[in-house]
């Protein structure tokens, strides 16, 4: 047992010892599910040992041998009835907790006297950007929140799909390029809780970690808000401006130490944030000249750009400009596989069918 204890000494049991209401509900569902399944598993494990031993070929007393046995109502009721009851109970609890813990659903059943704290989370290569729209500031790789105040996360990605999770607080939600997801959390106790991406996203993935700090003490809403506001002022005093140009520089793939990709990027503060930045990140149109996803879908609905849109092809291209190699280094955009052939009288452009095949809105 000692070697096993040594191996487990470095484990963290955040999921089983949460400090947030959401995490506590998830833990309860996990424990209920395990206990219900053990009702089947434990008897099965016992019978796997008991029956081979009881009916072994070398036993001395074979008087209970019944070669014509074919049916037992008691056995049938037990074999079918118990699993059915367990499935009904498990399904009921799963239904209740699934709706209660819908990540898009505000925590209405928990008493809050304040509006939720809004945080816009953006997964980058390989770091996290957190924007506080109510305060006009942003951070890289750091979250702070008042104890007892509901936090409403909106998430997206400027790169490949990632997963946002703070195990101590509960919840896990994907961040995806061109999309928005939501998550609601609350910290019931003060502390510093580890957060990270739980979805492999390239060579710097292991360094995509951050700290989520809950400020204050339970029940002291005014004091907790004061501590949080002090931190906001600290961010404004120490930070720089997160302009569009600054974000485009920030979103480039980077690691704190390329030789040690598990080392997180340093914490960075921004005192101002460019207008509507999160929505433009989700729309993939922060870079000047790029067409936002909403506009692109409107154009597709109207029939697309056709041949006339080939000249604007670069405005609809995104992924090739974000490609990285196996070491996290940005790769140059791939050359276009074909380009419109310009010829003909009166300055008219003629494009072959091969050149236009598979393209919509100039893509």
TrEMBL record:
Domain Cytochrome oxidase subunit II copper A binding: 114-234
Positions with biased composition (Basic and acidic residues): 346-363
GO CC annotation terms, alphabetical: plasma membrane
Family matches, as InterPro entries: CcO_II (IPR045187), CcO_II-like_C (IPR002429), COX_ARM (IPR010514), Cupredoxin (IPR008972), CuRO_UO_II (IPR034227), Cyt_c_oxidase_su2_TM_dom (IPR011759), Cyt_c_oxidase_su2_TM_sf (IPR036257), Cyt_o_ubiquinol_oxidase_su2 (IPR006333)
Residue intervals of the Cytochrome oxidase subunit II transmembrane region profile domain: 7-105
Domain of life where this protein originates: Bacteria
Keyword tRNA-binding: no
SUPFAM superfamilies: Cupredoxins (SSF49503), Cytochrome c oxidase subunit II-like, transmembrane region (SSF81464)
Keyword Lipoprotein: yes
Stretch list, region Disordered: 341-363
Keyword annotations of the record: Cell membrane, Electron transport, Lipoprotein, Membrane, Oxidoreductase, Palmitate, Respiratory chain, Signal, Transmembrane, Transmembrane helix, Transport
One Gene Ontology term of the molecular function aspect: cytochrome bo3 ubiquinol oxidase activity
Bilayer topology: Multi-pass membrane protein
Gene3D superfamilies according to UniProt: 1.10.287.90, Cupredoxins - blue copper proteins
Cellular localization per UniProt: Cell membrane
Transmembrane segments annotated in the record for this chain: 29-53, 77-96
GO biological process, one term: ATP synthesis coupled electron transport
NCBIfam families to which the protein is assigned, alphabetical: CyoA
Family affiliation: Belongs to the cytochrome c oxidase subunit 2 family.
Record-given protein name: Ubiquinol oxidase subunit 2
Naturally occurring in which organism (per UniProt): Paenirhodobacter populi
